[in-house]
Design goal:
2 copies of one chain form a homodimer.
Chain A: H1 25-44, H2 51-62, H3 68-75, H4 79-91, E1 95-100, E2 103-111, H5 113-133, H6 139-154
Antiparallel strand pairs in A: 1-2
Chain A binds a DNA duplex (30 and 30 nucleotides) through residues 50, 52, 67-69, 77-84, 86, 97, 103-107.
DNA sequence: CGCATATTGTTAACTAGGTAAACAGTTTTG
DNA sequence: CAAAACTGTTTACCTAGTTAACAATATGCG
């Protein structure tokens, strides 16, 4: 625990010897996350999908006939919170709910052809904006960042 | 309709032919950010400071006699949103508001001795938990991650 | 000086994105 | 069959912000 070293007198000394926020991964992660999310919304404009709605659509495209409960688990949110998201996607005619034959509790989710098109277009748009936002990073740096982020995500033992 | 076969393919195929969420920095950033934030709250327990309250306290410790407006700008939030945060810190007796001589509009913020102690203790606690959460990363990887995150943050041209 | 304009802290109303609890319909299990 | 569990849903609530308005105060300028 050499980390908690110099706690110097900060009363009138503005020279910032104090260990501060900037040394925390969490703080820098939040700043970066906010910047990227802002970019995402700017990329999709006024009537565009929100990040969470896009994530949901993406998973429905990748997993046809998925149930809302499974989808909620994948997204890491409660299934009650997913209802509004699916309502929105259904209203935009990007997916359909249909009763699962064999288990009438389940509403199987399926992306419409429109939904698949919107998904691919949106993904391309977001990727283009991310590339612009991250223009200061080399391809190798982006790859490194991606792998480090995935490593952190894996250490989150709660999210099934 | 003709895509039935293709749809069925992705159903059980984990090889991910479809470009997906995982290729987006933003998605992986969010997952990592959520994991770290959860860890932060767990580290500080039930009655602990929230991330934003800790950030505010940190900046007040580093910048004695700062005004609420300047602090809000540093935090990247509206000054109206800062009022509740400062209220909480004042109630916990971790800082004081005092009228700035020379400009009676300004409430100069100053951390109390208690506030400085709580700040340093909290920082140490959070750092320890981050170290545990990020145990899979080497020191070099953590340093790299930090620098890449700061690079992204810098590209956020709006926050002034 | 006087007056328009700007700034500060604050409140109020609103939004986004969730959680937790309860519920009816529908399996599943003992 | 009865009890337990699961699914989608509604309802009430929470957190962390935003925007708009406001009074008090400060500043620029003719």
């Amino acid at each position: 625990m050499a980390l908690h070293a110099a706690a110097k007198q900060t009363e009138t000394d503005p020279t910032e010897v104090v260990p501060d926020l900037e040394t925390l991964i969490g703080y820098n992660m939040k700043r970066a996350y906010v910047a990227i999310q802002k970019d995402f919304r700017a990329a999709l404009g006024e009537g565009g999908l929100s990040p969470r709605t896009f994530s949901a659509l993406s998973l429905v495209v990748a997993h046809p006939d998925i149930s809302q409960s499974s989808l909620a688990r994948m997204l890491g949110i409660e299934r009650s919170g997913l209802v509004a998201i699916i309502d929105e996607l259904e209203h935009r005619k990007l997916l359909t709910r249909s009763v699962m034959p064999g288990d009438r509790r389940i509403q199987a989710l399926m992306a419409t052809p429109d939904g698949r098109v919107v998904y691919h277009d949106t993904l391309a748009t977001v990727q283009a904006h991310e590339d612009r936002l991250l223009a200061d990073l080399t391809a190798a740096e982006k790859e490194t960042l991606m792998q480090l982020l995935k490593k952190i995500r894996l250490t989150d033992r709660e999210s099934t």
